[in-house]
Write a structure and sequence with these properties.
With about 80 residues, the chain is an all-alpha fold. It is about 75% helix and about 0% strand. The protein contains 4 helices and no strands. The longest helix has 21 residues. It is extended and about 45 Å long. The mean pLDDT is about 95.
Length: about 80
């Protein structure tokens, strides 16, 4: 079964079944080994780097990003 076929099958489920599956999937990510967790973040950082190289306009200044987070926390 391909990822596309699996996604199609999942999205055909009712909302309660999708929510139950989502919970199980999220919980499964908490049980990653140190090596699996490191590999995930290496892949994610490489994906983000490629995204930024393809569109440098996506970059956000660090000071600006921190200010936005602080502002959102004050309004929470």
């Amino acid at each position: 079964m391909t990822i596309e076929e699996l996604e199609s099958a999942i999205f055909s489920l009712d909302v309660q079944a999708r929510a139950k599956l989502a919970r199980k999937l999220l919980l499964s990510l908490e049980d990653l080994s140190v090596e699996e967790n490191l590999e995930f973040w290496v892949q994610e950082s490489e994906r983000r780097l490629q995204e930024l190289r393809a569109d440098p306009g996506l970059a956000v200044d660090a000071d600006e990003a921190i200010a936005e987070v602080r502002a959102s926390l004050k309004h929470s």
